[in-house]
Amino acid sequence: MADGNKPRRRGGGRAGAAHRRGTAAIEQMPWRVPVNTDRPTEPLGADGVQAIHDGAMRILEEIGIEFLNEEALAIFKEAGCTVNGTNVRMGRDWVMEMLGHAPEQFDITPRNPDKKIAMGGKHILFGNVSSPPNYYDLEIGKKVSGSRAQCANLLRLTQYFNCIHFAGGYPVEPVDVHASVRHLDVVYDKMTLTDKVAHAYSLGKERVEDVMEMVKIAGGLSEEDFASKPHMYTNINSTSPLKHDVPMIDGCLRCVRRGQAVIVTPFTLAGAMAPVTMTGAVTLSIAEAISAIALFQYVRPGAPCVIGTFTSNVDMKSGAPAFGTPEYMRATQITGQMARFYGLPMRASGVCAANVPDGQAMWETSNSLWSAVQSGTNVVYHAAGWLEGGLIASPEKFVMDCEVIQMIQRYMEPQIVATGPNDIAIEAIKEVGPNGHFFGIEHTQKRYEEAFYQPFVSDWRNFEAWEAAGGIWTAERAHRTFKDIIAQFEEPPMGVAVKEELKDFVARRKAEGGAPTDF
Amino acid sequence: MADGNKPRRRGGGRAGAAHRRGTAAIEQMPWRVPVNTDRPTEPLGADGVQAIHDGAMRILEEIGIEFLNEEALAIFKEAGCTVNGTNVRMGRDWVMEMLGHAPEQFDITPRNPDKKIAMGGKHILFGNVSSPPNYYDLEIGKKVSGSRAQCANLLRLTQYFNCIHFAGGYPVEPVDVHASVRHLDVVYDKMTLTDKVAHAYSLGKERVEDVMEMVKIAGGLSEEDFASKPHMYTNINSTSPLKHDVPMIDGCLRCVRRGQAVIVTPFTLAGAMAPVTMTGAVTLSIAEAISAIALFQYVRPGAPCVIGTFTSNVDMKSGAPAFGTPEYMRATQITGQMARFYGLPMRASGVCAANVPDGQAMWETSNSLWSAVQSGTNVVYHAAGWLEGGLIASPEKFVMDCEVIQMIQRYMEPQIVATGPNDIAIEAIKEVGPNGHFFGIEHTQKRYEEAFYQPFVSDWRNFEAWEAAGGIWTAERAHRTFKDIIAQFEEPPMGVAVKEELKDFVARRKAEGGAPTDF
User: Fold this and answer.
1) Of the candidates A366, A403, A457, which has its C-beta nearest B366's C-beta?
2) Structural domain tally of chain B?
3) Could you give the count of Cα atoms lying within 13 Å of A127 in the half-sphere of its Cβ?
4) pLDDT of residue B23
5) 3-state DSSP percent of chain B in helix, strand and coil, to 5
6) pLDDT at B492 over 50
7) Does A155 map to a domain?
């Protein structure tokens, strides 16, 4: 049997592409913060929304959430909640009052103010894959532990693609850097290789506060400037079922008190750490998320908070998590309904269970990305580069995902669906008549360049032309694009003094021992 | 560089799967006609719908459509339309009166009445790829002209997959059978290898009427039974811009007069045979489609008709058609709005420009299939097996597409979003508490088997387990599934006498010379 997956028969096909592109690795759409005007897909009626709300409130009132963080327990006590050991029960009136303080939309401003992003409303933002411990690319050809060099390359992709709006956590965990100083090296790389909104892991005081300091240095901000509005964010997960751990809540409290943004994302896998029913898993997720958001609103009314969803299901056969499933899509849509009910911006993800950047990877990721669009999601985490349920980061997958994300952004451009007289184009139809062709007429020529989406890794040539250029399958085309981008990558501008100050900060904090590693 | 696309390192991995499945090639969902309860995505407001309607009416009133078919011209004249040579202009009042006769929903009943399908309303149906002249599979490893054997295998897939509801045109054109008798051999194969609703090409009197006779023989139907309700259908394309040719209209008239269904699908490629603006291309498509449907409603008020869309855009670089683009998705959604405006069932497609069953193929196809769902499409043509803009049929792509289609069907099952007390599952959450796991509890165990979608070609194992089983990429897994299905395929039951009668009919019609080949 011929190996249909083995692509290269001839070497060619790049000269033309290089000529077409000039010196840029690819032609891409400009930076923009897309507005999703589609009416969300809402599987639940008002009764269903009320059922989940009531369920979440009953969890908070009757069962309670475990907060392992002492400071949080003291605050809940002060607020009048019922605290028994680590168990916190809270009344729905108080919860709803607290959620009422939360903004429906807020901005985060990174060191380059042109890359400011709006979280909430009808905006939709996309970020890189975050936190996989492993890396896979076609050149290595196997799964390996992540390194700082790989992490830096994925940060370069994060910066390069205009359709990626923010830098998430480490795009791959650089296991070759000691955990005590890893955050210093990676955030240094992130600050110098990107100028987009950055993230801090809530894994102990030092890690969060070091990132805040480095964001301040990179942006040339005083403490007052920094705390005046969001410049970065953290994202935490609850320990489902029903628990928030010590460092995650600690990191959020540090961010909230200094005016920075927090995303609270339970990971409720139906049939494992959540009920086997999808609406039950969503109800648990909602209760866990809003218990923490209520705390943050009590501490700082109006604190910028986002409710996250990471509700999926297990594989019935293996117990492994599955992603981009029909159940995942519905859970995401339902969470969108709940986020709007509570008036909170929402986070979802671009995810798959596939192990390599192939067909399965793309249908699962497409399902998850389209469910983000359908649900009115504002922040799409892991949108580019994710494989193996988040255990692998892949640069080829990153490039391929960016094609899908760009198409989603293009899909949201209102001019595609304009219906003015020149769009309906009766005069052009009259002019061409039944025997002509539209290509040559002025109506077409005036609009041609901007009329249609233009891909950078999709190959739209016919089979013969594609084959003559080497017959390259998508994953390998993406690999070449990845290499081209890295080869031509230019760091975003940063003043020499700022860079020195960042370096000095890293050196000093390393000399101090970095951060504890007892998490 | 390691070749990441080359999959096979070890041979194993099938024993477990075979054990799991028993003797069936795969475990799949049962036959069902899914109901799409999602509110359609509607990019246009009422003004936009009115603008396209008005544009389409102005085309019909001011520009006219060319009908090359003499019989149609005579009917239009009789109906009071303005006929100048082949140009037919028709007033909007008459058009809307005719469309008012068309049913919003109707059934088609094939030889196996259990495979009856409902076209229209909220139903969504999926059919196989139709009419590619070429074939590609991983064993052959290149693009080749289609053959009867390949066509028969694709018909076996069409029958095998419960998520495929009807048999479209030839799933690949069997170029090894002479065009004069090709329809006889392929329809014989279709009648014996499938028991699903069948299609006739409108390519001259003989081809349409031979299919009708064979459908009658296969179903044991008298002419009166046959004509009493739809048992098969034809699908035609206009010759955009602004033209309907002779045989397509002829075939439709033959179907309509004998109570059979017709689908009218203009192919309006924006920037080529239609305006460069997407709403202009849709307007032209609507005008072309409803001019023919109005004719059929005049001939037989209440005739079962479907309005099709095949509006996409060209590649700005090569002029080649592009599919599954953002523009394609919006055009499909807008056509859905127009179909509901006119009260007609709607057809769209599952399409891509990719040449091989890889990542690009699946994101483009996912885009097109999700836009079918979002648009409220009732009939999804080419939903499985399509490559290279419809020039290649691929069995691997067929299998991969069926996974996506099954997920869409599962997505539409209402139990996923149920919100009764046992779904919200407060008692289960109480029972498990903050330190437990949901897997072992009764609430989970009672629901586990049916709770989640179960894939047949997606591999949800972790990387290590996947690698140990050979590290097989999706396209090759699909190839193996294809081979398994063909090896174990059993023809649907058909009486010996019926089969003999079909054979005799084919032999007689071949002896008579089949059909003219001057199309």
Assistant:
1) A366
2) 1
3) 26
4) 58
5) 45, 15, 40
6) yes
7) yes
> What's residue A23's pLDDT?
58
pLDDT tens sequence across A332-346? 999 999 999 999 999
Q: Which of A312, A225, A304 is nearest to A266 (CA)?
A: A312
Omega within 30 of 0 (cis) for the link into A493: no
In a domain, residue A490? The reply is: no
ipTM above 0.90, yes or no: yes
Give the tens place of pLDDT for each residue, A209-255.
999 999 999 999 999 999 999 999 999 999 999 999 999 999 999 99
3-class SS of residue B229 = coil
- Give how far Cα A19 sits from Cα of A15, A25, A489, Å: 6, 11, 18
Q: For the domain that residue A285 is a member of, what is the CATH number? A: 3.20.20.480
Residue A371 has pLDDT above 60, yes or no: yes
CB A186 within 8 A of CB A180: no
What are the tokens at B324? Answer: 């599954």
Instruction: Give me A25's structure tokens.
Output: 């690795």
A-chain residue closest to B464, CA distance:
A143
The minimum CA-CA distance between B139 and chain A, rounded to whole Å, is 4
Average pLDDT value for chain A = 94
pTM for this model (two decimals): 0.95
Residue A29: inside a domain, yes or no?
no
Across the interface, which of B360, B425, B458 has its CB nearest the CB of A277? B425
Question: Do A175 and A480 contact (CB within 8 A), yes or no?
Answer: no
Nearest CA in chain A to B429: A275
Give, for A244, the enclosing helix (H) or strand (E): strand A243-244
Give the C-alpha separation, A81 to A92, whole Å: 11
- Rounded Cα distance, B141 and B392, in Å: 13
Query: Is position B317 within any domain?
Result: yes
SS3 category, A470? coil
Question: Which pLDDT score, from 0 to 100, does residue B317 have?
Answer: 78
Question: What value, to the nearest 5°, has the Cα angle with vertex B124 and ends B123 and B125?
Answer: 120
Q: Which residues of A touch B322 (CB under 8 A)?
A: 452-453, 460
Instruction: Locate B298 and state its tokens.
Output: 């005049």
Domain that holds residue B302: 83-412
